[in-house]
Design goal:
This protein is of the alpha/beta class and 329 residues long. The chain contains 13 helices and twelve strands.
Amino acid sequence: MTDVARAAGVSPMTVSYTYNRPQRVSAETRAKVLEVAASLGYAGPDPSARSLRYGATRTLGLVLGEHLTYAFDDPQAVQFLAGIAEVCAEKGYGVLIVPTGTGDEDADRVVGAAVDAYVVWTTTDDDPVLAAAFSTRRPVVVHGGPERAGSVMIGVDNRAAARAVGLEVFAGARHPAVLSFPIDRDRETFVGAGLDPTGVAYPVTRDRLAGYRDAAVELGVDWSRVPVGVCRTNDAGEARSMMRRLLELEPGIDAVAAMSDQLAAAAQDEGARRVSGWDDSDVARQHDLTTVAQSLREQGAACATTALGGSAPTHRDAWHLVRRSSTAH
């Protein structure tokens, strides 16, 4: 703080007010201080200093990238958070959920979180919250991607798993389709034929699309003609609407690869005949869905363990295909 004050030609108190009481500093002065701070690599007062008695906050930050309610509404997010909570409880740590994706304040919210380390829920390659987390020089573990130098990425090999389930659901199909997660932070809902995975910003979506394409090519299916319905969220109601839209555009759809069990069950509700899901959740068992099994709870625990200084497997190969009647010939 002293170095920033000297370089900006202001007092250390002015630097402190810039970060803690910005209303007491003129806009021009605040802009100058922040510019100098950025050039010196200073991200602002370390929230950990508030816990000098312990030398740490003893809190793990989960950067969610979704509306806060997502952590409690989405079944797989619930499992992931349970895995994190389990490790934190064992180690005497708290969990601070940092919701982002709401606007320009995302990066400030991440930097200002009083935490010792971050777990970042899968996000896009260009998400500014990643740079914000790294700027604090605290440990960062990313779930599902993107991979960044200086951090650890934990998650399954989505491309290999998507190829495996794609070979199952697309076998014998003449007009397959895909129900997809969003492709970028704009989260637009649309249908695109033969969507190019390389232009997708979310690594999980990108890799699953690439795996489905691998399976289609291997089976002799023209990927350029495969309709991909992109959903904004992992929501059954939205998926039903998208499935109706797909069937209006291509009434002959005879197989659907969905990126979650919730999306797959919604496709079934709209009359899709051959369907595959992802996660092997309770929904998959209730609907007898062929699916990719993975444990989001174990991955959450691995992320927390690694972020807090331990070692854990990457879980890259911790998936397997579960065949059920939804893809029976």
